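Much of our argument rests on the idea that a fold can be written as discrete symbols. The amino acid sequence and the backbone structure tokens for this protein are reproduced below:

___
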Amino acid sequence: MARKRYTVVLVQEEGETSHNFSVTKWQLWTLIITGLLIITAGFIIGFFAVPKALNYDDLQAENDLLKADQSWVLNELEQELLNIKTMRTYIENVFGSDLEIPININSAGSPEPIMLSGIPISVLENLPTTMPVLGYITQEFVPVSKSWKGSHTGIDVAAPKLSPIYAAASGLVVFSEWTMDFGYLIIITHGDEYITIYGHNEENLVEAPERVERGQLIALLGETGDTTGPHLHFEIWKDGVPVDPVGFIVEFQDFDIIGVSSDG
């Protein structure tokens, strides 16, 4: 039995027959199925490829943002390291890089006064545990290793301009001068590798090398240097490394840090 065939006629626009060809039923279905497969494959490719292309653009934009953010972070870290080096330079210029402050223990096992340049500093009085100014913390301590957005090696305490600033512990003033970043700045060494820093002062009331007692008036709060308003930038350093003042100051151990007072 002969296979049933179909004749396809291609007619020109004027109506004249130009071409014709015949196909079997099986060949016709093969062409139809092949066409459908090609169309389906096109839809599938478009469905998966287009979102990927769009997603690539999004990823590229996100990557550009991350690179820009990384560059900003590196600049912040470099600036912070420069600030730390500058602070160490202040101290080394006064005492030298090999400064050592020994603690003597008497026969009863109790600490004796530290002799710093011939000036005794009490072991108990030299711990910076007193809040230097009455005010509110507006920025907390953020170490370099725990922040993608740079560090803050102390705390900022906002208070009215010209508020009194007191020494957080007994010690020896080793620096009391103007600086570009912190304006009028005071650095006090307390022995046992402790140092406190008081920045953005309106006026320094003590000079180096001057002995100060815990709670003694040392400066007036201001907004000198690189700052946007009156506040005290207060730092505590231990063994050449900045530490969080909140862990030292007594007022922070029992109360919320929204407002704290000094002993002065």
About this structure: Helices lie at 25-95, 251-254. The chain is about 30% helix and 30% strand. Residues 114-254 form a domain with the Glucose Permease (Domain IIA) fold (CATH 2.70.70.10). The CA atoms of residues 137 and 256 lie 10 Å apart.
